[in-house]
Amino acid sequence: MASHEDTGPLINGLLSQVPDIDAAETGEWIESLDGLIDDKGGPRARYILLNLLRRARQRNVAVPTSINTPYVNTIGVHEEPYFPGDEAVERRYRGWIRWNAAVMVTRAQRPGIGVGGHISSYASVATLYEVGLNHFFRGKDHPGGGDQVYFQGHSAPGQYARGLLEGRLSEHQLDGFRQELSHAGGGLPSYPHPRLMPDFWEFPTVSMGLGPTSAIYQAWTNKYLHNRGIKDASDQNVWAFLGDGEMDEPESRGALQLAAQQNLDNLTFVVNCNLQRLDGPVRGNGKIIQEL
Amino acid sequence: MLLNADKDRALVNLMNVTPDVDFQTYRAENGGFIRDNFFGRDPRTKQLVENMTDDEIWALKRGGHDYRKLYAAYKAATEHTGQPTVILAHTIKGYALGPGFAGRNSTHQMKKLKTDDLKLLRDSLHIPITDAQIDENPYVPPYFNPGADTPEIQYMLERRRALGGFVPERRSKYTQIDLPGDKAYEILAKGSGQQEVATTMGLVRLFKELIKDKEFGKRIVPIIPDEARTFGLDSIFPSAKIFNTSGQHYMAVDRELMLSYKESDTGQIMHTGINEAGSAAAFQAVGTSYATHGEPLIPFYIFYSMFGFQRTGDQFWAAGDQMTRGFLIGATAGRTTLTGEGLQHADGHSPLIAATNTAVVQYDPAYTYEIRHIVRDGLQRMYGKDDPRDPNVMYYITVYNEPMIQPAEPGDVDVDGILRGIHRIHAAQGDGPRAQILASGVGVPWALEAAELLANDWGVRADVWSVTSWNELRRDGLAADAQAFENPGAPQREAYLTSVLRDAPGPVVATSDFDHLVPDQVRKWVPGDYSVLGADGFGFSDTRQAARRHFKIDGPSVVVKVLQELVRRGEVAPDAQTQAIQKYDLHNVLAGTSGNAGGDS
C-alpha cells in the first residue's frame, strides 16, 4: 500500500488521485514554504498561507475552508467597541440580583416547604442577561415594538430577583417561589410559564429543545407579519438563551437550516456554554464550543 | 493581553487541545492548580504567566462573564444583516457561588446555600449583610434591596426606560377583528348532492371561503408540512402563494399550469417542509401573535393525524402554556380509513392524546355541515366579542379522506348538540325492540348501515347519534361530577350526555374508527347498558372494508353487538346473535362491506 507521502494532497476531504503533472514545480513551492518557516517561523508562515487561501478563493480556486476557528474570542480585544455603560455600577447590582436569587431559592428550602429550585444555572448566565438587559433587549414600549427574549427556563430565579430590585415583585412574592397555590396572595411559578404568570412570562422554555425551535419560528413569523403588511416588525429582534447541554436535543439544532435559508437576521442564539449538563460534562473528551 | 504576548500561539494551541472537563476541573480548584496543570503543560505558556500570582491567574475570566466581550458580541449580532447569529459564550455553572458549587458535577441539583456558603457569596458579591443577620435564621437569609432611590437602582431603571420597559413582559391586548359573517359558512350547509366528498375536502372548501374574506382572510395562516396536494390545498398555491423571505428566483416546472407552485416574500402559506417539529413551533408562534405582537393571526395547521399529537405533543403542550389560539387539523384520521398506508399511518388514538391537553378542544365530525358550526364557534370563542368562554384554546378537528355523500343540513339541526358533542341524526320509526347507536367521524355511515340492517333483518328500531366530541362530553361529565363532589346538598347538574340519553330506550352501542378508549371515555355518563366497539393496536395495510371487519367495528359488527345486548335483556330471540354472526359471515374479512374502495393517501 502506498504511504500518504506517495499520493496527492487532500482535496475536499478526500485523498487526491490526481497525478502530479509537474513534480519539479510542486517541489519548488514546497521548498519556498520550508524556507519561510525556517527563516520567519510558524506564525508568519501561517499568516501568509491564510492570505494565499483567501486570494485563491477570490480568484475562484476551490480550496477547503477551515471549519473550526481557534478556541479564542472571535472578536479580538482591539476590535471591541466602546462600552457605553458604567460597568462598576452594573456589576454592583448584578451582585445584588445574584444574591437575591440565591436567597429566594434557599428560602424555598426552608423547613415545611422544601420545594427546591436551581441556583447554579442563573449564576452562570447572569452576565449574559445583564448586558442584554442594560443595553440591548427592548421592552414593549420601544418604538420598534420590542424584542422577544427566550430566557433559559432553569434560570428563572434571576428574573424574579431582578423584578424585586425593579419594584415589579415584592419580597413576599419571592417567598412564594414554587408555592403557587399555598402561598398567601399567590406565589411564583418554578419556570417561565405564561399560563401561570400571564403578565410576566412571554415564552415557555423549560422543555429542553423547544425554546430554540420556537425562537426560530418566532423570528420567521416576525418576517411574515412584516412582509405581509400586518405589522412593521423590522426593528424587533429575537434573542434565545440556550444551554450547551440543551443543544443536544435534535430540536435545538434541527431547525437551524430554516434560520439560515430564510436569512433570519432578526434572530440571535446565545448559547451559555458552561460545559455542564445535569449529570456531568456536556462533552468530556471533546469540546462542545468547537463542535457548535 | 496574554493572547497578544503569545507569539508562538502556544496558548491558543493549548486552549484548542484542552478537553471541556479539564476546564471544568480548573474552576473547581484554584490558581496554583491552573498554573501547574494548564499553563505548565507547555514551557512557553508557563513563561507567559510566571509574573502573575495564583490569585491573578484565578481571576482570568471566561468570556461569558466579561461585560465588554459580551457587549461587543451583542452589538455585532444586532448589526449583522442577512443571516442569524450564534454567540457561543463560555461560562461557569455555579459561577461565584463558592467552592461548593462552581463547576461541580452535582451543581444543578444544589438547591440551597449552607451558612458558610452564604457568607462566602456575600463576601464575593459585596453584600452589606452581617454574619449575625445570616446566623439569625439560616433558612431565611435576608434579601438585599436598597430601594429605588439608590443610584444603582436609578441607573438600572433608567436603562430599562430607555430601552422601552421591562423584560420579560407579556401583554395580551390586541387589534380587534371582525369575524366572517354566516355567509362564508353556507357553502357547507347544502351537502354534496350526488357527489362523494371527504370531510377533509369539505374543510378545505370552507377554509378557502374564509381566506377570501376581505378583512379577516389575510389573518389566516395555513401551515402545511409538505402534504398540501394530499389534502387538496395545492389549489391555493397560485392565489395565496408560499411564504419565502427570498421570494422565487426560478422558473417553476409547472408554471404553465393553473395550479402552479408559487413562492413569494409576501406569500400567505407557511409551507414548512417535511418537518412536524417546525410546523408545531410555527403554529405556536403564529397562534400567539395576538399577544406577542398585538395582531391576531389564525393558524390552520394541517397534518397527517398520526404525526401530530403523537409526534409533537410536547410542543402542543408548550403551545397550551403560551395560550396559543388556532386550529389543528388532523387530516386522514382513523385506524382503517387510510388503511392502504398501513401500520405507522393508521391513527386510532390521537383524540386520546389530545384529551390530555386541557387547552385542546377536540372534535371528530362526521359531516361537513357539522364542521361549519364547529369552525364558526371556534373562531367566535377565540376572537369573538363578548364571549364568556376561555379564548385560549386550540381546536383539534379530525377529518377523513374517505369520499362519501355529504347530507344537507336538516332544517331542525341541533347546533347546540353539535357543539356540545352529540346530536341525533336518525330517529327510528315503527314498533319493535329499541336500541341507540353512538358513532363519530367516518364511523357514522356504518352506524346508519347498522340501523338499516337491524330494521330490515331483525325488526329492531335503532336511533343513530353523531358524537362530534367524546372528549367534550367527558369534560362536561367530569365538571358535573366535581360540582356534586364539592357541594353536597346544593342543586346538582346532570351531565349533558346523561340528559340527552335519559329517555332514549334500549341498550347503547358505540363505534368509531378509533381505539375502544375513545368512546369509553363517556361510559360513566351513559344511562343504562353501554357497549363499545373499537380498533385497538397496530394497523396494517388492506382495504377499508377488510380492516373494519377485522377490528369488528363495521355495520354488521354493530348489528351483532346490539343483538347480543337485546338477547341478554330478553328482547329478541335467544339465538339472534348466533344467527347474525352466520348471516353476515362475521369472521370473514372478505365479507366486510362498510366503506369505499381506496384508502390511499
Topology:
The complex is a heterodimer of chains A (292) and B (601).
Chain A: E1 10-11, E2 14-15, H1 23-40, H2 42-58, H3 87-107, H4 120-135, E3 148-150, H5 156-166, H6 171-174, H7 210-227, E4 238-243, H8 250-254, H9 256-261, E5 267-273, H10 288-291
Parallel strand pairs in A: 3-4, 4-5
Antiparallel strand pairs in A: 1-2
Chain B: H1 2-5, H2 10-17, H3 20-27, H4 31-37, H5 43-48, H6 54-58, H7 67-79, E1 85-90, H8 115-125, H9 131-136, H10 151-162, E2 196-197, H11 199-212, E3 220-224, H12 237-240, E4 242-243, E5 263-264, E6 270-271, H13 276-287, H14 289-292, E7 298-304, H15 309-321, E8 326-331, H16 350-355, E9 360-363, H17 368-383, E10 394-398, E11 404-405, H18 415-420, E12 423-426, E13 434-439, H19 444-458, E14 461-466, H20 470-486, H21 496-501, E15 508-511, H22 517-520, E16 530-532, H23 544-551, H24 555-568, H25 576-583
Parallel strand pairs in B: 3-6, 3-7, 4-5, 7-8, 8-10, 9-10, 13-14, 13-15, 15-16
Antiparallel strand pairs in B: 2-11, 12-14
Summarize the structure in short.
Chain A has 292 residues and is mainly alpha-helical. In chain A, 41% of the residues lie in helices and 7% in strands.
Could you explain the architecture of this structure?
The complex is a heterodimer of chains A (292) and B (601). In chain A, 41% of the residues lie in helices and 7% in strands. Chain A is elongated. In chain A, helix 1 crosses helix 2, helix 3 runs antiparallel to helix 4 and helix 3 crosses helix 5. Chain A is mainly α and 292 residues long. The model of chain A has no long low-confidence stretch (mean pLDDT 89). Chain A has a three-stranded parallel beta sheet with strand order 3-4-5, sandwiched between helices. Chain A has a two-stranded antiparallel sheet with strand order 1-2. A six-stranded parallel beta sheet of chain B has the order 6-3-7-8-10-9, sandwiched between helices. In chain B, strand 7, helix 15 and strand 8 form a beta-alpha-beta unit. Helices cover 38% and strands 11% of the residues of chain B. Chain B has 601 residues and is an alpha/beta fold. Chain B is elongated and about 105 Å long. Classes of the chains: A mainly alpha (292), B alpha/beta (601). The interface between A and B is large, with 151 and 127 residues. Strand 5 of chain A pairs parallel with strand 1 of chain B, so a sheet runs across the interface.
